[in-house]
Amino acid sequence: TLEEELDPFGSYTITFDGNDYKVNMPNVFSTDSFEAEFTYTGSDLGAVWTPEKTTFRVWAPLADEVYVNLYESGDASAEDLIDSLPMTEDVNGTWVLEAEGDRNGVYYTYTTVTGDEVREACDPYARTTGVNGDRAMVIDLDSTDPAGWENDVNPHAGEKITDAVIYELHMRDFSADASSGIENVGKYLQFTEKGTKTAGGAVTGIDYLKELGITHVHILPMYDFGSVDETTGGYNWGYDPKNYNVPEGSYSTDPYNGAVRVGEVKQMVQSLHNEGISVVMDVVYNHVQSGEDFCFNRLVPGYFSRINENGSYSNGSGCGNDTASERSMVRKYIVDSVCYWADEYHMDGFRFDLVGLLDVDTVNAIVEEVHKTHPDVIFYGEGWTMTTNVTKTNMVMATQTNSAQTPGFAYFNDKIRDGLKGGVFNDMETGYISGGSGGSFEVAKAFTADSAWCKSPAQTINYASCHDNLTLFDKLQKSRSDASREDLIRMNNLAAAIYMTSQGVPFMQAGEEMLRTKVNADGSFNSNSYHSGDEVNSIKWSDLEKEEYQQVLEYYKGLIAFRKEHGVLRLDDAQAVQEHVSRVESVPQNVLAFYLTGGVENETAEEMFVIFNANPEAAEVTLPAGGWSVYINGETAGTQALEGVSGKVSVAPISAMVLIQDDSVPVVEQPASEEDGQDENAPAVSEPTEKESVNIVLIGVVCAVVLAVVGAVLIVLGKGKRNKK
User: Fold this and answer.
1) What pTM was computed for the model?
2) Exactly one of 353, 512, 572, 603 is catalytic; which is it?
């Protein structure tokens, strides 16, 4: 029995039978009354600098007092406090302070006093920080802009998401190997270095990306993450956020100066843009490195995260905590953060880690707000379904199965990934390309953007490998240890040919195009190399000095170039796919074939025929009528015709073949079968082309006339016997 009403935000314990039990009331933050009173909608959270003054505003609705602590340096171990200034309580739970004078370069933190509890924290809205992200820094952002920054634009503005070819890389992996020839190893500035090569003359670095032909480079987390000590360096993928709006310091040339990391990211983006490459940022808003220590939760304990009834953090992410995106100020924070990266750093896309832990309203708000000023920014993420303790009722999560409710957001398609090579959680399982049974169904469905969870090509990210799990070549080596190296390479290339010609958005892991492998010291393959270091993870550029690897690279280049030249491979509407892409049924076992028609934007071909043969022997396939030019086969891919064929074609073992209808190719007459004059392997295509329809009508007219004449003659002769056929 309570003597007085409890403060719903207070900290209480119950003592019973000699034991103390903490009382938790985490969902008070999610009530309508709390959000009505404490939702701040302004755009000035954080430290807003001008030469005359800096205005600090922080959201801390539970605090009794709040202070801004000013420091000389960004090193949290240094005892160099300049002053601690009291803030004034303002609207909707915010506190504000105007500090006179030019404060550019001054470091700061906030201190909240709530009852007897005193907490110091970095600013959640910090634009940059000192070393290791413990102290925020006031910054004149304009002073960090490289020359010409005002003219920097997305080189793929105006294009559809299905026009993208995405290349995923890690900052250190790209340059850490000694053969890279890159000076700024693991730094933002590596992408400003032109002319880098291996000792044997193989092109590396940003020149390599341009020659490869990809449109977007997807960079694994480069916001400030907590797993690497910026004073000593180290290796981690970075899926452990510490400060969302701050670039990671270990990738800068000076982690102690908060302005350096900001300027160097801008130089990186500008350099990539100048080479025609857009930049996608990998973001992790679904969890933080430490729920207890995250700056937002230090200022407002428990608000940013979902907390179970027993006081523990909800852990659907498997990383210790889940973000409460359904709460208004968390949603605002995420939307503000993504908009900030798009505005300040000119980011062209965002890949969301475990986005299935965020709600659809938050995801749609992100897309809507960013697209108001940056309509060409692309969005995609991991829409896996996971269990999480959402703090409001009737929340819909941003998963694959709910993709129709987030129309501007795409999701990774694990159906094509596992259909191609076998499930990623069973290293020994095989898929369509590696001799497995059952994968062809998912591959065929994905080719037409018709996987069970999604019906729009603009929402499916098609891939065979990414940073998670075994690399594509390692998966093939492990699951098919009985196969020859030649056949393993054929499998690798067939996988690429499939996802590069499928409807949707092609995505590839850096190095897949040079048979990337991750091998541990004991010779085993590494399937989770998030902190395994450079030796395991780095791209071995010197491999490109060998003909075998160069051939694979050239094949990938050709696939990318072919896709970019043909609009029918890049449709962004489900209805258009239904009208222009159909599966051919009458083909040999383990062969997939598709018939595509032109008449769409950026497509010059009238007809296209795509064949995939997963068999260890050649397969004979009957082509639609007319002459055809081969542009892709098992050895070569590109935008130049390789040979002309008609009638039937032999598709090499474990390979792809892509042909374009070509009237200049001589047509070879095919012998009819004895039974009914039709080859049993002739492709059954769902719809004829316009030209074929006209021909069918003309043939019908001629046949009708001939039959009429013959019939009249037979009647006259009194021999009106009917031909059985």
Assistant:
1) 0.91
2) 353
